[in-house]
Write a structure and sequence with these properties.
The complex is a heterodimer of chains A (83) and B (134). By secondary structure, chain A is mostly beta strands. Chain A is built from 1 helix and 4 strands. A two-stranded parallel sheet of chain B has the order 1-2. In chain B, strands 3-4 form a two-stranded antiparallel sheet. In chain B, strands 5-6 form a two-stranded antiparallel ribbon. Classes of the chains: A mainly beta (83), B alpha+beta (134). Chains A and B meet through β1, β2, β3 and β4 of A and β1, α1, β2, α2 and β4 of B.
Chain lengths: 83, 134
């Protein structure tokens, strides 16, 4: 994984293939009401790309780069929380 | 890999200042993802929009990119790593045997596996005793 440039902007993760929401799009509200998640065991994991910190470097993670390996993906509420 | 709505910069300081003191390897060995807007969490159904954070979702993804297991907890209770490892080993065994062998409840590596087939229907009790630690 190549180290990524650091800036003050706050880039975040996105689902691979997802269209960015347009602020002037009148269908934005309708889109919000549509559940994005279609998660099920036995079905493909949604691919995503997101900035990350990895062993001293800032990198970009893409889930599909890990095809061929077992992956554990853990979400948690926040750094410096207690559990 | 792990993911929260914290920035990669906060991940760095958390790793350096706290986690490195709790981990024998001297720091987190896997990528810590910055999911600032919760988009990745939303895609996995674990983003709590009201709280603005991801809840404790854990997904085991196989080498084909297929979700084999998932567990979602509310924030106050932590996970058990050995249980995640047990499940990964079980799914790896299933994959190695191409599904010919399956794991009964409570299975641990080295313990009895079952071979599904017509002969086993109604006869699981004869070959596997859940009360025995085998």
């Amino acid at each position: 994984m190549a180290e990524t440039a650091i800036g003050c902007a706050r880039p975040t993760g996105s689902v691979v293939g997802a269209q960015p929401a347009k602020s002037d799009d009148t269908t934005a509200i309708e889109q919000k009401e549509t559940p994005v998640s279609d998660i099920m065991v036995g079905r493909p994991a949604p691919d995503f790309t997101a900035p990350a910190y990895h062993k001293g470097s800032f990198t970009q993670v893409k889930l599909s780069d890990y095809l061929g390996k077992w992956v554990v993906l853990c979400f948690y509420p926040g750094d410096f929380t207690f559990v | 890999m792990s993911a929260s709505v914290d920035s990669q910069f906060v991940h760095k300081i958390w790793d350096e200042e706290e986690l490195a003191k709790m981990i024998e390897a001297g720091g987190v060995p896997f990528p810590m993802i910055a999911d600032a807007a919760g988009r990745v969490g939303q895609a996995y159904g674990v983003y709590d929009a009201e709280a603005g954070v991801n809840v404790r979702g854990r997904f085991i993804i196989d080498p084909d990119g297929v979700i084999q297991a998932m567990e979602v907890l509310t924030p106050p209770v932590g996970r058990k790593v050995t249980e995640t490892l047990r499940q990964i080993r079980a799914y790896q065994h299933v994959r190695e045997t191409k599904g010919a062998e399956v794991m009964p409840s409570g299975w641990e590596p080295g313990k009895k596996v079952l071979k599904p087939g017509p002969e086993l229907v109604g006869h699981v009790w004869e070959v596997w005793d859940p009360k025995k630690d085998e």
